[in-house]
């Protein structure tokens, strides 16, 4: 018999064949939703406050609904969950969650499912918004542990195009912070590459910790601001005081830009959402970008 995923046994999402064996049977699918707490296991009647019972209803899209034996009121099983926002069958909604969780691009999801392009786009936008919400709900300071080092850097997204003929594209400066040796990153879009770049450092990095940056002049006041600031010349071989030769923030920029390239480019107004998704994946995901289990756990508790 199919084991319905013990979430504590592994951080990885179910493999594709396991996933489809769960969702191809409607009973299994509903059990799964309840096992991972995406749907509630119990419900009280909002009219008479008695415990409701699950009742089979073949005419309804979810084939079940909650029914109160006392006052006979009924409620959808998706009421008060994120799944009531869409008319899609629960199976399709879970497919989108799964493919987003395992970091599949929209054009790939279209190949695996019978869900329309527009619906997948709308859902991915919504799920990126959730990543942002979950990050905001669990804010972190970088550099809080003894001896930690935070690398900071700015990067330009949406480089100038030949003949300047791109439509709806703009150059965007992004300020990035990476705590060395951890998966903790933060980004902020800055309107101009000037002193305002320092504002996210002040609110996101613990005073007293070590900061590595390039030699850009706006960073020259960081020591006065209470940080232990070292500069690194990008054009020369990077060699930090602790002997480390890696530059982790550079690696992060490469990953983000590779992601944007794999999405066949991203418009200016979507960069923030892409950075939120990246931050969430990088902080909570496995090395392959798989955040499915973390995502459904956060959704279950929202
Ligand atoms: Zn009732």
Brief summary of the model shown:
This protein has 302 residues and is α/β, with parallel strands linked by helices.
Account of the 3D structure:
With 302 residues, the protein is α/β, with parallel strands linked by helices. 34% of the residues lie in helices and 14% in strands. A hairpin with a 5-residue loop joins strand 5 and strand 6 (185-190). The two termini are 31 Å apart. The model is unreliable at 1-9 and 162-168 (pLDDT under 50). Zinc ion binds at residues 45, 47-48, 50, 68, 70-71, 73.
How far from one another are the termini? 31 Å
Mean pLDDT: 86
Q: Which regions have little confidence, pLDDT < 50, spanning 5+ residues?
A: 1-9, 162-168
CATH superfamily of the domain at 149-266: Ribonuclease H-like superfamily/Ribonuclease H
Provide the structure class.
alpha/beta
Give the topology string: H per helix, E per strand: HHEEEHHHEEEHEEHHH
Number of helices: 9
Each distinct ligand: zinc ion
Q: Using the 3D structure, state the CATH architecture of the domain at 149-266.
A: 2-Layer Sandwich
| Biggest beta sheet summary | 5 strands, mixed
What is the count of β-strands? 8
The outline comes out as: elongated
Q: Provide the spatial order of strands within the biggest beta sheet.
A: 6-5-4-7-8
Classify the fold: give the CATH topology of the domain at 149-266.
Nucleotidyltransferase, domain 5
Approximately what portion of the residues adopt beta-strand conformation?
A: 5-15%
User: Cα-atom Rg, whole angstroms?
Assistant: 23 Å
Top CATH class of the domain at 149-266: Alpha Beta
Percentage of helical residues?
25-40%
């Amino acid at each position: 018999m199919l084991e319905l995923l013990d979430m504590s046994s592994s951080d990885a999402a179910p493999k594709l064949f396991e996933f489809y064996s769960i969702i191809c049977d409607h009973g299994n699918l509903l059990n799964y939703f309840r096992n991972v707490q995406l749907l509630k296991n119990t419900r009280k009647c909002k009219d008479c406050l008695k415990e409701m019972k699950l009742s089979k209803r073949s005419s309804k899209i979810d084939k079940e609904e909650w029914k109160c034996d006392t006052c006979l009121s009924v409620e959808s099983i998706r009421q008060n969950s994120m799944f009531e926002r869409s008319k899609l069958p629960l199976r399709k909604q879970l497919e989108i969650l799964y493919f987003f969780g395992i970091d599949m691009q929209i054009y790939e999801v279209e190949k695996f499912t019978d869900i329309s392009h527009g619906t997948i786009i709308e859902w991915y936008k919504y799920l990126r918004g959730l990543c942002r919400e979950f990050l905001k709900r669990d804010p972190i300071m970088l550099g809080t542990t003894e001896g930690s080092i935070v690398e900071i850097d700015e990067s330009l997204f949406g480089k100038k195009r030949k003949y300047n003929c791109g439509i709806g594209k703009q150059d965007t400066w992004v300020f990035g912070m990476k705590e060395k040796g951890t998966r903790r990153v933060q980004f902020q879009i800055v309107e101009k590459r000037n002193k305002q770049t320092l504002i996210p450092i002040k609110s996101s990095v613990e005073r007293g910790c070590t900061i590595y940056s390039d030699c850009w002049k706006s960073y020259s006041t960081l020591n006065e601001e209470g940080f232990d600031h070292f500069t690194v010349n990008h054009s020369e071989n990077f060699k930090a005081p602790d002997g480390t030769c890696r530059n982790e923030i550079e690696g992060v920029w490469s990953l983000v830009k590779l992601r944007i390239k794999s999405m066949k480019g991203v418009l200016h107004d979507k960069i923030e959402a892409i950075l939120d998704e990246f931050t969430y994946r990088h902080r909570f995901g496995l090395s392959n970008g798989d955040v499915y289990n973390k995502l459904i756990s956060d959704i279950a508790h929202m």
